[in-house]
Design goal:
The chain folds into 3 domains: about 130 residues, MgtE N-terminal fold (Alpha Horseshoe), CATH 1.25.60; about 100 residues, CBS-domain (Roll), CATH 3.10.580.10; about 170 residues, SLC41 divalent cation transporters, integral membrane domain (Tetracycline Repressor, domain 2, Orthogonal Bundle), CATH 1.10.357.20. It is built from 20 helices and 5 strands. The strands form 2 sheets. It has a 3-stranded mixed β-sheet. Strands 1-2 form a two-stranded antiparallel sheet. The chain is globular, with a radius of gyration of 29 Å. The relative contact order is 0.06.
Amino acid sequence: MPPFHSLDDLVELVTTELARGDLSAVASALGSAPMPEVAVLLERLPAGDAGVAFRLLPKDEAMTVFERMDAPAQREVVAQLSDADVARVFSELDPDDRVALMDELPAKIAKRLIQDLPADERGGTAIILGYPVGSVGRRMTPDYVHVYPHERVGVALERIRQRGGDAETIYTIPVIDDERHLLGVVSLRELFFADPDDAVETHMATALYAHADDDAEVTARTLVDRGVLAMPIVDRESRLIGLLTSDDAHRMVEAARDEDEAHAGAAEPLRRPYLTTPVFAVVRSRIVWLFVLAVSAILTVSVLELFEATLEQQVALALFIPLLTGIGGNTGSQAATTVTRALAMGEVRPRNAWPVALKELRTGIVLGVTLGAVAFAIATTFYGIGIGTVIGLTLLSVCTISATVGGVMPLVAKSIRVDPAVFSTPFISTFCDATGLIVYFSIAKSVLGI
């Protein structure tokens, strides 16, 4: 068996050996590869091959690999396993990973798996399931170790040694009182180098925390941006109920980024590697957006029909339609993308709609004046001052309107609980095409007297 030196080599090797039916070679390759690479490998393989490869992993490594996989890939692997194997895998997952997988499984299967869990595991999972989908409470782990402010460091370290094996992380340790109210956090490093007789509170730091009902993506971005290893999650009475770990936060941020990139390209995220995604899944990810854009095109045609007589009198106007609609759509999309990112980063809120509108209005005017001046000079040179004036004024108007609407739309979407990236793109495309043409021909009729 030839050695492999990269993830691509591993994928090629495993795919080749699976096609040959040489399972011993596959098991040998998987056993000698780092577990993070094996997790990515299983995500890249077709569902059937991924199921076979997963069953060839040593039992002590299989769960570690499985927990590193994305939930959609986990679902496809689970579909290839026997009921007994599924129950074993499900019971060994951490509660937060278990809930993420449940969100991907059919409701009947998820309910049966929950019922088959041991009572203690079922309780931890039920706590997380009680929070709304999309909230950070749904993504936290209830498995953590805590310390108290007045106990000695030596006592705290002993508790960490005894209970830390069941915790998902021990590097950031919440400090709580007897009623479980969060008081702060302390790092394991700080405790390790402290005097054993010191009180824990002398080494305690202020906690960066979130409430269980807070948006999971916003919380994850905050954790990643601040560079902390874990964030305590509290209920409405500030009682500690779990932790959001950095690895889970990074996965959420990466998934959100992939989704936003897909929406920006007028498609839904595939959630699987491209080459292993079925053709019909690719079609489903694109078809809805194409229908929306088709409606936009129909509206554009309707507007053109309204101004058919104007075009007949001044045919040169038709030459600039692609330029004007393209610039209008791109201006709106740029504004929407900027504000959508600002929303995700917590830099703006729906209540900031008016300041955002004013900022984008001024931005649109500057863009419109700049582009309009250039277009006026070029169009005047070839088509006369009348056409040049129409094009210049239209660009000024279109850029101003598109930037303002594009900047406000994500805030409107957020306020009505719709994904800004999903809502803004098709709306702006439709709005800018139809509105831009109406503005264009209205200015043309006024300036040219037709």
